[in-house]
Amino acid sequence: MSRWHAPLAALAVILSGLALRAGPLAVWGRVWMAGLVLLGARVVWQTVRGMLRGQFAADLVASLAIVTALVLWQPLAGMVVVLMQTGGEALDQYAARRASRAVAALEAEAPARRTAAPGRPGEGHRGGRGPARRPPAGAPGRDAPL
Predict the structure, then answer these.
(1) In this predicted model, what pLDDT tens digit does every residue of 34-47 receive, in sequence order?
(2) Based on the number of CB atoms within 10 Å of its own CB, is 69 exposed (0-12), middle (13-18) or buried (19 or more)?
(3) Cα gap 137→120, rounded to integer Å
(4) Domains in the chain: boundaries
(5) Rounded CA separation 67/116 (Å)
(6) Model's pTM, two decimal places?
(7) CB–CB of 117/31 below 8 Å?
């Protein structure tokens, strides 16, 4: 399932339930409950799998909220939790991919080997050649430890 399918499906279930609530038939609760069972089961299952691997996180609280919403017959509250959880996961995956691409681009632009600063060899960087130099008096960072 794509990273955006679950949050979009949760949003569609919430909005369709709201639209049906305005109509003459009282089926909106069933729509929300069906969406909560189908979409919430995925969130709860992922949390259980994480717990079996020893990973406890905020997902546990979200899963408890989903199960409680099912037990108390509060499907809209449960669907909001499903939307928040799946949307957060999708945004997290998006940010991780984007950060990975940015790091890969920086690595591609980095020089193949380290070069010395202009001037004498080894000047301007520590590079294992000679002692570190202190900045002149009054320069920013003068009192910083070496």
Answers:
(1) 888 998 998 899 88
(2) buried
(3) 22
(4) 5-109
(5) 61
(6) 0.61
(7) no
